[in-house]
Amino acid sequence: MPATSPHRDPDRPSLRFWGVRGSIPTPGPATARYGGNTTCIEVSVGGERIVIDAGSGIRGLGVALMKECGPEPLHLTLLHSHAHWDHIQGFPFFAPAYSKQTHIRVIGGNATAAGLPRVFADQMDGQRYFPFPFAALPSQITFEHIDAQGDLRFSIGSVAVLACPTNHPGGSLGYRLETPHGGIVFLSDHETGGADEERIRAFISGAALMIADAQYDSTEILTRRGWGHGSVEEVVGLAASSGVGRVYLFHHDPAHDDACLDRMLAEGQAQARQHRSDLVVDAAREGEEILL
Ligand SMILES: [Zn+2]
Ligand SMILES: [Zn+2]
What is 145-177 written as a DSSP string? Predict the structure, then answer.
C-alpha cells in the first residue's frame, strides 16, 4: 500500500480522516499536527461514499461535500458505531443534512431502547440542546438497525460489510468493509483483552488496514481497565497476531498532545518490529488521505 496521496483514482479505495480524537474535541496548537476533531472517517470504494461516525470531524466533511457536489444530489451511507457524544456531536453541523438533495442511509446498532433515530433526534430537539429540530431537516434520512444477536452482514452497493460488537460500556459496533484491495477494519471504542477476543480476532483477520482504538499507553491502561478503550501495545499485538497489514492508532486521548502521540507511535512501531517486521504502524492524522 503506497503512502498518502492527494490524487484520487476512482478505481482505488480511499479513506480520509476527518476526526481522529476520542472523548471530546481538542483544538489548539498542541494538537495541530494530529488534529483535535472527534471521530469521522470517509471511505470511497466501489462508487460508494461511506462515512463512519458523526463526531465533530463531520462538519469539515460536510463543507467539502457541499463544495464538491454543488446542486447535484448527494448519496451517502453513515455507518454508526454508538451513541456516545464524540460519535454524534458533529451531526447538527453537517451541512448536507440541510439540503433536500441529500440522501443519507444511517446504519447502526440499536443503541438505546428507543432506537437509532432517537440517538440523532434527541440532540436536535429544536430547543434545549439545539435550535433546529431533527424532524425538520429537509434531507432524506433512513435508519437501519443492526441486531447484535442477529445477522451482522449487509452490503452497501457492491461493498460487503460485516459489523462486530466491541468491548465498550453500553456497546459499540466495529465495521469491516471488503474491497478489491483488501479489507478495511474500523475497530474504535474497543478495549482489547475482553472475553470475546477470539471473535474480534476473526473479525479483523487478514485485513489490509485497521483503524484501532489505541487511546492509552501501557501505563495508562493499567488504571483504566473497563473504560472501553485500547492501548498501543495491545492493539499492535492483536494486529500482529491476526495478519493485519497496516494499523492506524486512533481515538487519541484529549490529554495527549502531538509530542505525546509521536512518542506513542514510536513505541508502537518498536513493538511491531518485535512481532512482525512487515506490520506497518501509523497514527491517524486529521486530513490525511490514504489510498489502498
Ligand atoms: Zn469514542
Ligand atoms: Zn464510546
Answer: EE-TTS--EEEETTEEEEEEE-S-TT--EEEEE
> What's the CA-to-centroid distance between 121 and ligand 1, angstroms?
19
What is the Cα–Cα distance from 274 to 270, expressed in whole angstroms?
7
Residues 6 or more apart in contact with residue 220 via CB below 8 angstroms: 231, 253
| Ligand 2 mean position, distance from CA 82 (Å) | 7
Q: Which residue has the cell 480520509?
A: 16
Grade residue 3 by pLDDT with cuts at 50, 70 and 90.
very low
> What is the pLDDT confidence band of residue 11, given thresholds at 50, 70 and 90?
confident
**What's the CA-to-centroid distance between 168 and ligand 1, angstroms?**
9
Q: Name the residue ranges covered by the structural domains of the chain.
A: 14-291
Alpha helices (H) in the chain, listed in sequence order:
58-69, 116-122, 197-204, 232-241, 258-275
C-alpha cell at 230: 485500547
Ligand 2: distance of its center to the CA of 187 in Å? Answer: 11
Cα separation, 238 vs 184, in Å, equals 15
Homologous superfamily in CATH for domain 14-291: Ribonuclease Z/Hydroxyacylglutathione hydrolase-like (3.60.15.10)
pLDDT tens by residue, 118-162: 999 999 999 999 999 999 999 999 999 998 888 899 999 999 999
Please list all protein residues whose beta carbon sits less than 5 angstroms from ligand 2, which is an ion: 84, 189
DSSP 8-class letter at 97: G
Q: How far is the CA of 9 from the centre of ligand 1 (A)?
A: 31
**For residues 236 and 130, what is the distance between their CA atoms, to the nearest angstrom?**
40
CB 212 within 8 A of CB 192: no
pTM for this predicted structure = 0.95
**Lookup result for grid cell 447538527:** 92
CA of 230 to the centre of ligand 2 (A): 12
pLDDT beyond 90 at 115: no
